[in-house]
C-alpha cells in the first residue's frame, strides 16, 4: 500500500476520532443543557407548588380566622337619638368624649338621668370622667384583686344568675342573709366599694355584650332581685348604712340608668313598715319608680319576668346549680359561654346592627343597618383604627366628611350633624338588602368594615349593692 494511501487512511482515522470527540463533546453539552433546563424546570415547578400551597394555606387561615357576623336588633326613639347626637357633638367640642365612653346608650343613660337637660348632662358626664380618672376605674379589672371574695360571699350572698325573658342579666342579693359586722371583719368598706365598681365594669365589658349576642338585641339594662326574707334592723347597722350610701352615690352618679326593674321579694309586713321607709332615703325618685315590692304570697310574679329555668329554686324557680355555693356562685349566663365570650373578645369580629327608629307615638319608623365591631364594646361611632382625622368624629376633617338628615322619621325640621357621629353607614338602606354604604365605599354584609373602632357599653343595675 502506498504511503499516500496510508496517510489518507490515517487522516481519515484522525478525522473520525476528532469527529467522535466533537460528537461526544456536543452530546455532553446537550446533556448538560438539558439537565440544566430540567433542573430549572423542577425548581420552577417546586417554587410554583410552594407558592400555591402558601396561598392556599393563607386563604385557609383567613377563612378559618373569619368570625361570623352577629345580627343585633335595636329600636331607637328618634327624639332621644337627636338629643344623643347633640350631646355627642357638644362633648366632642369640649374634648370630653374619650373613645372608650363614646357609646350611644351610655350617652343616653346620662341624658335620662338629667331629664335630657344638655347642660346638666355635660356637668354630670365630666364629673364622671374626673372620678374615673381619680379612682382608676378604667383599669380596675386588671389592677384590683379581691382575694377575700369567697369569704365575703358567705356573709353577703349575691351575684348574677341567668337572664330575664327579654335577655337582660339578672342580679340577685339575699339581703336577709347578710351580716355587715362579720363582713367588715373580712374586708373593709374601701375594698368592698372597689369590688362593687369592678363588678360594674365587668358587666359593662362582658355581661351586657354577651347578652346582646345571645338575645340578638341590644341589652344595656339589668333586672335586679332583692330577697329580704329574714331581713331585720340588725342588718341596718351604722356601717351598713354608710356602705349603702357610698354605693348608692356611685351607682346614681357614675353608672346612672342601668336598672330596668327591681323586685324586692319576700317582703314581710315589718319590712314594709319599718325598713322600706329607711331604704327609700338612699334611692332617687327614678329608681323608686322601677321598684316593685312583693309579699311572700306574690313572689310567683317573678316567673312572669324570669323563666323558671333561669330562676333559683329559693326564689320559686327550678334551677338548682350543682356548683359549690349553689346558684349564686355558678355565674350562670351567656357570659359563661366560651363560644359567646370568644366573640365578645375577638377584635376581628363584627356584628350587623339592625336599627329601627320610631317617633314618640310609635307610628313613624325607618329601618337601617350598620356593620360594627364585635368585641364586647358596641360602638356607634366609626373612627379609623389608624387614628386618621378623616374618620374621627371630633376632628375638623371628620366633621366635614359626611352629613346626615336625622329627623326624617318624626317629620320635624331637619337637623344636620357635620360628623360621622353614630352613622358609619347609610341608615336609609333597608335591612333586607344587607348592603352597607359610606361616602367612600360600598360593602356587602359579609365584608369587614375597616373604619370601626371599639367602645364600651353601660354597667349593671343601679343601686344593686345593698347590705
UniProtKB/TrEMBL annotation:
<dbReference type="InterPro" id="IPR011074">
    <property type="entry name" value="CRAL/TRIO_N_dom"/>
</dbReference>
<keyword id="KW-0333">Golgi apparatus</keyword>
<comment type="similarity">
    <text>Belongs to the SFH family.</text>
</comment>
<dbReference type="InterPro" id="IPR001251">
    <property type="entry name" value="CRAL-TRIO_dom"/>
</dbReference>
<dbReference type="InterPro" id="IPR036273">
    <property type="entry name" value="CRAL/TRIO_N_dom_sf"/>
</dbReference>
<dbReference type="Pfam" id="PF03765">
    <property type="entry name" value="CRAL_TRIO_N"/>
</dbReference>
<dbReference type="GO" id="GO:0005886">
    <property type="term" value="C:plasma membrane"/>
</dbReference>
<dbReference type="InterPro" id="IPR036865">
    <property type="entry name" value="CRAL-TRIO_dom_sf"/>
</dbReference>
<dbReference type="GO" id="GO:0015031">
    <property type="term" value="P:protein transport"/>
</dbReference>
<dbReference type="InterPro" id="IPR051026">
    <property type="entry name" value="PI/PC_transfer"/>
</dbReference>
<feature type="region of interest" description="Disordered">
    <location>
        <begin position="380"/>
        <end position="408"/>
    </location>
</feature>
<feature type="compositionally biased region" description="Polar residues">
    <location>
        <begin position="397"/>
        <end position="406"/>
    </location>
</feature>
<feature type="region of interest" description="Disordered">
    <location>
        <begin position="439"/>
        <end position="467"/>
    </location>
</feature>
<protein>
    <recommendedName>
        <fullName>CRAL-TRIO domain-containing protein</fullName>
    </recommendedName>
</protein>
<keyword id="KW-0653">Protein transport</keyword>
<feature type="domain" description="CRAL-TRIO">
    <location>
        <begin position="148"/>
        <end position="323"/>
    </location>
</feature>
<keyword id="KW-0813">Transport</keyword>
<dbReference type="Pfam" id="PF00650">
    <property type="entry name" value="CRAL_TRIO"/>
</dbReference>
<dbReference type="GO" id="GO:0000139">
    <property type="term" value="C:Golgi membrane"/>
</dbReference>
